[in-house]
Amino acid sequence: MGKQLWRNEWLTQLAACIGYALAFLAIHSVTSAPAHWHLYAGLQVVCLLLVPYRYWAALLLGEAIPSAYEAWQCLDSFGPTWVAIRMVPELLLGMPIVWLCRSRLHIFPARHLVNIKALLICILLVSVVLSAYSYALISSVPHIADSSFRPTAMIAAGYLTGNYAGLITLVPWSLIVRLDYRKGHLKRRLKRIWSNTLSIDALGIAAPVILLMMIVASKIDTVQAELVELSMLIPAAWLTVKHGWRAAAIAGTLVIICVGALQPDLPTRSVVEVMAVLCVAVSGLYALGAKVTAQNLRDEREYEIAEEAQKLARENLMLSERRMRRAAEQLEFVAGSLHITHARVLDHMRRIIPNVETHGFYKQSVRAQEQVYRVAESLHPSVWRDRGLPAALNETIARTLDEAGMGYRCEISGRGFMWLDSAIHSSIYRVACEAIVFICSQRMCSRVMLRVRAGKTRGRCWVVVRVEGYLEHNQVANAVYFRGHRRELAAKLGTHLVGADEMRTHVKAFGGELHVRSTVDRMTVTALLHSNVAEMQKERVSAPLRLWVS
């Protein structure tokens, strides 16, 4: 068993060595001049960031062998000093920096988090070290026939911009693959990538605009072409602000490729300046995208916290509604028991008390029983329990308002009631009763219209409760006549809220809104409620802490 594991480990090390050597040779065969970008620098940092430490020796060996072979072939042309420097693998120079950033600066603070600040520091330090190595390498050449490749400050700047451009092109894409890859979910992830708004905006708007600018820059003179090349950052910035750091990776990479394709092979001053500005701008886009992504995730987390609070409030309201229903049922049972008990007591009292006094006791017994039933009805109407919410809205409220001398009409429309859960039913009734009591507190209110409409939009159920109270000045006398019954409206309908603010708080528990509008002849209360039965599920992701993105 131990030998088998030992053999498998060595085979893995060998595979890592050979695979990196082949990738190194392949990317060296297509790499471009220093004025553009050095992709092999990006390959080195990508491997050091993603490959575990135990395979670093294999990677170093995979680069050292082809580098030494190429350097030894140039011994006669460039001399032993150049060969000695060239045989030092560039991967060895980047290892201490990447180790420092991984272990001390914590580029990966968690499995699916990236510290963009530490990443940009790592890219900058590696670019400086590799540029110094390349400058030392070209400075060690004993004689150079072509004066355009002599070691100058412009050459050093060209190496720096080329290495930085190569790093900032490949490294973010590798990190996106690392963050988004989930074993067994590749097909679903690809389908989601092609269907999200980032892909639509990038492929449909940003990429065509950048490519069009590239074509225009290739047809005009140098000075105007540089302005057009820098203008490519505008659609890249728009995409970054809208979608975050992944958009910066897409747009920034496309801009670097397009600008690099337009530059000449020789590292002239204008080329270096354009690439330097471009590298700084793309780095800023990554930082901006990280902030945007962090803010989006923070807003999403706050939204989820608010949703949890609303869910808890809905559950508490539903629990209170169940308790009120049980209390109403118990009160009705108690009222029935009181009726039987009082009947037996009165039957025995008739033998010793005159009929006149017995009749008075009977009226008091009936009044007490009616009061108990009235309290039970205010807690939870029996019509609601027997025949549902429409019956309670049409009969219970109508009877109560009729006793108060006011007209009432109820209209229920829409086909969304079949999707509403019991919690939203309770809220409809309570909001309707509270709005009616609030409107009927106006002495001029003579009649009430209740409209309830339910529906379903994009998989989410909603219901609108609209209560209209008609104000008539000539009905003040009628209100004074029925003032006793009007005072009992709140008790009969089981309401306890006293104003629009309390009603608005109740409605917000169901993700809705409430509006109160008053005119000379009408007062209207409109409430929008959302049901939580068919809410669309949102992907939960980790929220960032500092300048992190996930």
From TrEMBL:
Where do the TM regions start and end? 12-30, 37-56, 82-101, 113-136, 156-177, 198-217, 248-264, 270-288
Q: What is the lineage of its organism?
A: Bacteria, Pseudomonadati, Pseudomonadota, Gammaproteobacteria, Lysobacterales
Entry superkingdom: Bacteria
UniProt keyword annotations, A-Z: Membrane, Transmembrane, Transmembrane helix
The name this protein carries in UniProt is: MASE1 domain-containing protein
